Amino acid sequence: MSYAVIKTGGKQYRVQQGDVLRVELLNAEEGATVSFDEVLLVGEGESITVGAPIVSGATVSATVRKHGRADKIRIIKFRRRKHHKKQQGHRQHFTEVEITGINA
């Protein structure tokens, strides 16, 4: 089974065909096909191809399953005995994709 390491949204992911993962928000409709061009590594069995910095000609295709927002993160800053407390909340947007193919 071949695998690849792709870079999207400032993060790196190790993916195989059929994997479902949540990446940073992509500008694509649900059900659309997206292609990741920044492939850093491709491996098949014992053979591994490492890019410098990317593998030329390699792409990973995926299908957009849904868009959404992650669970709320609470940020609290508190200084004891100083009458200071600051609260903030954040929900990160994501795109859930399913890997459909690795073209090395």
Automatic annotation (TrEMBL):
InterPro entries: bL21-like (IPR028909), bL21-like_sf (IPR036164), Ribosomal_bL21 (IPR001787), Ribosomal_bL21_CS (IPR018258). Keywords: Ribonucleoprotein, Ribosomal protein, RNA-binding, rRNA-binding. The keyword Disulfide bond does not apply. Signal peptide: none annotated. GO terms for cellular component: ribosome. The keyword Metal-binding does not apply. Belongs to the bacterial ribosomal protein bL21 family. Part of the 50S ribosomal subunit. Contacts protein L20. This is Large ribosomal subunit protein bL21.
